[in-house]
Amino acid sequence: MEGLRGGGGHGEAAVDGGDERWVEDSSVDYQGRPPLRAATGSWKAAIERLSYFGLATSLMIYLTKVLQEEMKFAAKNVNYWTSVTTLMPLVGGFLADGYLGRFSTVLFSTLIYLSGLILLAISQLSPRLKPERNLHLHETLFFVAIYLVSVGTGGHKPALESFGADQFDDGHAAERVQKMSYFNWWNCALCAGVLLGVTVIVYLQEKVGWGAAAVVLATVMAASLAVFLAGWRHYRYRVPEGSPLTPLVRVLVAAARKRHLHLPSDANELYEVKPQNIKRRLLCHTDQLRFLDKAAVVEHDGGEERRGAWRLATVTQVEETKLVLAMVPIWVATLPFGITAAQVSTFFIKQGSVMDRRMGPHFTLPPASTFAMAAIGMIVAVAVYDKVLEPYLRRLTGGERGLSILKRIGVGIAFTIVAMAVAATVERRRLRSASPASMSVFWLVPQFLLMGIGDGFALVGLQEYFYDQVPDSMRSLGIGLYLSVIGAGSFLSSQLITAVDRVTSHGGAAAGWFGKDLKSSRLDLFYWLLACIGVANLVFYVVVATRYSYKTVMAGGKVVDDKAGDIECAAAAAAAAY
Questions:
Q1: Fewer CB within 10 Å of terminal CB in the chain, N or C?
Q2: Could you report the per-residue pLDDT of 268-287, keeping only the tens digit for each?
Q3: How does it sit in the membrane (predicted)?
Q4: CATH code that applies to domain 24-53+100-239
């Protein structure tokens, strides 16, 4: 028999303390061999290009000033584009994990991304396609271009970030700690790109034109692709094994087929494969969603064991299914955070466009450049957390991690609620000002900084959560799930704007909260509404997060637990009993 009993963690050790020189986490090098630790992976292969944010932050201004859209329609178009951009990674992550591989997905999606930037440049530089010559054709090409960027992002974002995290071995203590820092510094690198995007790129858009900016972005993207390809010999690769969702469906089918069977009193009687027969990590049994455990119950028919992929699952497969189902409440509880985050690239930027942006007698700050304040806030928050707060909390608690992942997300959500309250207060003061246009744009600094700090906790935490807590075979899809929080939040923000506008304007019969411009709008009340929604949701989030059980991985006969480091499987089972 190839299996063994002992899903509760009392079986043989998964790792027998092999040669430290080799990586034993099922990854391979460029020749398909087990990777040599010193020559592959780690930080040398995880540094990603400096990204840009110029397109997203300037989109609101472009739609209202160049395409002459009303503010509420422009905000909805920005939110729809953001939604597609951040929901497409679910498709890209699925293809990367199951069929194409993460490296190939990065390559193909970057080429699509480049085609969108090139088309954007053509729509801006060709005299016949300029908006003053043919607004309808220009608008069509413009939207096709930015949605090509969305499709490219769908594969690029989840595959590249998860491919970078794959360069660190979870089974190696030093590399596991490095991976925790990887997500922090990944976001610092992205924010550095954001700063360049909302300053240099936006300046080009304002002073030279969108065509020149698109050419620069395409050049930078092409150069980043060349740098990425140059390191192919040093990467660690994961071989795709087909749809990552199939094993989850098999568990559900097997559990449904055996729904009338009784669960054994001892979890060690559930089916699990021998650790030495596979390279994949094994998970310890938990008592959550016990009905799924029936998928791992071994049936006996006339003394013979009944098997089959759709009839018998391992404890690890059952636990992976539990993890995915347990993520649903967390995902739902973070959607209001996504709604709040959508305001930064829409209404925050629009506020800045109607305020005094002069910085001396000869320079006026472009509206989209105000986003730099949020990027600075995030860089500061991440750097302080990684270099000061987390090391202090590690010494204080004695664990590998300072804050648990979900606590970090909760802290970030709390910061964004405060940001909405501050934004409402500032907007109210602007509306009451005798000369709103003379109010300095630097009044927006607190709300941008608070949102940036909140992102430094919540966004980084969400990335790490959805990468770490999903099954190993669907980590790109996990990054897609993280991005879907922002995408679904942007979509819900559009729906909320529509609903609030309909209610407050009594179906268009009166002036509502959203007028044709900020002068006739009441953004302050909308911000207060978001703050109230955030407070109510934070209570729900705390309830969900306190009930969550983290992934427990057997490594050398021990459990790698996100709360407390390494603990014996037997001790974990005993603690659960109490």
A1: C
A2: 888 888 765 566 778 888 88
A3: Multi-pass membrane protein
A4: 1.20.1250.20
